[in-house]
Amino acid sequence: xxxxxxxxxxxxxxxxxxxxxxxxxxxxxxxxxxxxxxxxxxxxxxxxxxxxxxxxxxxxxxxxxxxxxxxxxxxxxxxxxxxxxxxxxxxxxxxxxxxxxxxxxxxxxxxxxxxxxxxxxxxxxxxxxxxxxxxxxxxxxxxxxxxxxxxxxxxxxxxxxxxxxxxxxxxxxxxxxxxxxxxxxxxxxxxxxxxxxxxxxxxxxxxxxxxxxxxxxxxxxxxxxxxxxxxxxxxxxxxxxxxxxxxxxxxxxxxxxxxxxxxxxxxxx
Length: 269
Prior knowledge:
Blueprint: H1 2-100, H2 109-126, H3 132-147, H4 153-169, E1 174-183, E2 186-195, E3 199-203, E4 210-214, E5 219-222, H5 225-238
Antiparallel strand pairs: 1-2, 2-3, 3-4, 4-5
């Protein structure tokens, strides 16, 4: 009996010892699992931030490409306008120089003024034919003023420069108005759009027909559907119904266009 009791005690002591030895191992395993789970959560959070950064990067790249494309279109448009604006500035400089030397050229003033009117009339006749009747009437009034001996020289010069500035200002703005278009001996109501002195367009009220004036052959050319959409946008911009934007449209005046023919009466409004 004593031997059996001793053996039982020994076995109990051994089991207790093994249990005590296993407790640190179980605790370490639990701690390891906790650390592993925490690391997995951290890695998942890092991956989420990486994915978000990739999305933001792609969006920024898309915006950058759009901005570069818009910049390139603007540069092309500015290049096309540069020669026209330079010519206009040269004319202003010549007239300013004429004013500064007026006392020295007073005897030649009548011929000088008439020559300036003649050049201005030639410019209007060779220009794209917007507001043609109004512009010609302004020139006729100017010519009568210059020929009137009762009008002072200062008044003549003032009116001449006013007409010149009005014509030059056409090169720096957009304008849209309703008018009558004559084509093939038929008249129709249309909406005209002018972009500086380089673009002249029309659009029918239903938007199904439209054209661009080509100064080289002095006639209208049909626009396709996408171009008519651009003209409609331009009309809304000119009427302050839409924010300004770049418009992809064919120009009315080529860079080497030296046409001096009279404008077609059918394009007047």
